[in-house]
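Sample entry follows:

_____
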Amino acid sequence: MKAILVTAILSAVAIGAQAEDGTLRAFVGARVIPIAGPELADGVLVVRGSTLEAVGPRSATAVPPGAEIVDLAGRVVMPGLVDTHSHIGSPAGGDQGSLRGGWSPPGRVSHRSGLALGDA
């Protein structure tokens, strides 16, 4: 389950990181779990910039001419999933307080040490 969530988050970051330029991309071959509707074993997501233009099974969803194709075979994508949990407003800011299971004073637990310990 952790791998599914990580893949969903990384996919969202990858889409969002390049969303400003309006590039047309087709993410193909992923297991797609939409917010509404049945799960797709071999799905296609068509994204233009930051807009999701189409989601469907590969057999019925056209990839527009000129689209950059990104192969996501073996991955899981959950379009529409929004993570609204954040610690940005905490005294430590930017999720630093969650690295060791609770708030820590600044400087006590660095982000890198949390990653090294597998706590992030």
Notes: The first strand starts at residue 24 and ends at 32. The longest helix spans residues 2-17.
